[in-house]
Design goal:
Blueprint: H1 3-12, E1 17-21, H2 25-34, E2 39-41, H3 43-49, H4 60-73, E3 78-81, H5 89-101, E4 106-110, H6 131-144, E5 151-156, H7 165-177, E6 182-185, H8 193-201, E7 208-210, H9 220-226, E8 230-233, H10 236-255, H11 268-274, H12 277-287, E9 293-299, E10 319-320, E11 323-324, H13 325-335, E12 340-345, E13 358-361, H14 365-376, E14 384-389, E15 392-394, H15 396-404, E16 409-414, E17 427-431, E18 444-449, E19 460-468, H16 472-487, H17 494-504, E20 510-514, E21 518-520, H18 524-532
Parallel strand pairs: 1-2, 1-8, 2-3, 3-4, 4-5, 5-6, 6-7, 7-8, 9-12, 9-14, 12-13, 16-20
Antiparallel strand pairs: 10-11, 14-19, 15-21, 16-19, 17-18, 17-19, 18-20
The structure holds sulfopyruvate and magnesium ion.
């Protein structure tokens, strides 16, 4: 149901309803959660919270901004205290259009002259607008409103400015005839008597609203008995906030510490709740704004046989077609949605100028081997994580296929047997089956990897790209820690860990076969190849 329709229902309800003041999105949320069925966007409290006077000092743009933030956060209808309608009839028409566009349920305008003053300030000196002029303003608003249910409340300040009851009644009747959906009869009397008298003489052509700021002690039944449709508690949330803020500010200023106030204020997590932080986490799960993926790039080594090229930089910083090799891999990772990336540095860390990654340092890279480097990046070794050598280059589809795998542990293996063409080989791999001739959907499982696999037994070569997820990650981590503690952290490579896991066989390690489409930068020849690719 539209907010405006809901406000109409409150006005038409058979008993007296109430609405609560709110001056920003936070107080609107608090009022709504308390059970208030509607909100009063008060000119007094909106302007006060802006550090301005309630003398038409807040501009239409400023109030619309606040109203927009309020209506975005609450479901209950908002009745906006529109003062004199921001000028003559044509300004009021603009206001009505803008309020309808923001789904504000209704506006209340008062029969004073711009710039108005709050009803409780020098009220007797305030001038009322001529009745005909104010009726014209009401008609102008009603004629223009794009939402037929939008509520225009006409407020008469007759009693506030010291006019008598008959003047108040006459004005109210004329405003109802002009099309007002409700009358707000304002009074500054200390008791309900004045408004009560108005009600006894009122023709009841439209619902009546009152604002018992000064006659707040009236018993609730009195409004009902008198036929009041809606009571506005017009400023209570801001007054409550001011009292609390003054108490806490003074206490901290006097004592110099916040120790004593902690019990009197809400915990920070209450602010998070009111901001709907939980809702954001939910959306992140739905829309995948936050990538669940991490990567650790092992980039600690200098590389052998690359002396000239690595005099003052690690091998992953060697430019390939003008771009450091590692940057090419990072581009692929970001394109695949991997945002949290760790790079383990070792040799010449100062030459690693890569941006947007978190560095971990392994100063003992020469002794520890890959697992020692990996161990420095332990905080990244959780959840869904890609582990990659920093010095490999590959086509992007390879990473894409790896990210599509749902296995707990997946490794990418080049099944082309290109290693037979070179005497320098990386980690040879034995798989449950040789690579397929063409496309197939079989699952391939890692049987063994590393130095124990002979060239004859090997089905391919691990390219230095693996992914862990689910139960695969703690399994790998445990294996890593086990190997490090056995070896004292010396000379252990990734293949040692993967081989041990394959032998243990607790969960199949999936192999994704590729055919070439990658290189590693292990020799000057490789670099030359990279530059020509
Ligand atoms: C307001 O809340 O701004 C009102 C009511 O207009 S009063 O302050 O009583 O004028
Ligand atoms: Mg006001």
């Amino acid at each position: 149901m539209k907010a405006s329709t809901r406000l109409r229902k409150l006005l038409e309800s058979s008993n007296t309803e109430y609405i609560l003041e709110a001056h920003n999105a936070l107080s609107a949320t608090i009022a709504e959660s308390s059970g208030a069925k509607g909100l009063w966007a008060s000119s007094l409290t909106l302007s006060a919270s802006y550090g301005l006077r309630d003398n038409s000092e807040m501009t239409m743009t400023q109030v619309l901004d606040v109203l927009e933030s309020m209506t975005e956060r609450v479901e209950v209808p908002i009745l906006f205290d529109g003062d004199t309608g921001y000028g003559q009839f044509s300004h009021f028409q603009q206001l009505v259009r803008k309020l309808c566009a923001r789904e504000i349920a209704g506006v209340c305008i008062e029969d004073k002259i711009f710039p108005k003053t709050n009803s409780f300030l020098q009220s007797e000196q305030q001038q009322l607008a001529p009745v005909d002029e104010f009726c014209g303003k009401i008609r102008a608003g009603k004629d223009i409103q794009p939402d037929p249910d939008f509520v225009v409340v006409a407020r008469t300040e007759a009693l506030i400015t010291g006019l008598d009851m008959s003047a108040a009644l006459e004005r109210a009747e004329r405003y109802a005839e002009a099309g007002a959906d409700a009358i707000l009869i304002h009074s500054k009397a200390p008791t309900f008597n004045e408004v009560h008298e108005f009600m006894t003489q009122w023709n009841r052509s439209v619902p009546v609203i009152c604002v018992p700021t000064t006659y707040y002690s009236t018993p609730e039944e009195a409004y009902d008995r008198a036929g009041i449709s809606l009571v506005i508690w017009a400023n209570h949330l801001l007054r409550a906030a001011v009292a609390a803020m003054q108490r806490v500010a003074n206490q901290i200023s006097t004592s110099g510490t916040a120790r004593g106030v902690e019990d009197e204020i809400v915990p920070v997590k209450e602010l998070f709740r009111l901001q709907d932080t939980e809702g954001l986490s939910e959306s992140e799960r739905v829309y995948g704004q936050v990538s669940p993926w991490r990567a650790i790039l092992l980039a600690a080594t200098r590389g052998s046989g690359l002396d000239d090229l690595t005099r003052d930089r690690p091998k992953c910083m060697i430019p390939i077609s003008g771009v450091p090799a590692i940057e090419k891999q990072l581009q692929h990772m970001r394109a695949e949605g991997i945002r949290d990336i760790a790079v383990v540095r070792g040799y010449a860390p100062e030459a690693m100028t890569t941006e947007g990654v978190q560095f971990f340092d392994n100063p003992n890279w020469q002794e520890t081997g890959e697992l020692g480097s990996l161990a420095t990046a332990r905080p990244f070794l959780k959840g869904d994580v890609v582990i990659a050598y920093g010095d490999i280059l590959y086509k992007r589809y390879i990473l894409h296929e790896l990210m599509a795998s749902d296995a707990p542990v997946t490794v990418v293996v080049d099944g082309s047997r290109a290693f037979l063409e070179s005497d320098q080989t990386g980690d040879l791999v034995r798989v449950s089956q040789p690579p397929p001739e063409g496309y197939d959907e079989n699952d391939y499982r890692l049987v063994g990897i590393g130095s124990s696999i002979s060239r004859d037994d090997a089905h391919g070569e691990w390219i230095g790209l693996a992914r862990l997820r689910g139960e695969g990650t703690p399994w790998f981590s445990d294996t890593l820690e086990e190997i490090l503690s056995e070896s004292g952290g010396i000379e252990c490579d990734m293949a040692t860990a993967l081989h041990r896991m394959a032998l243990e066989g607790r969960i199949p390690i999936r192999v994704i076969y590729i055919q070439r489409d990658w290189i590693d930068i292990n020799s000057v020849a490789d670099v030359a190849r990279g530059n020509t690719n």
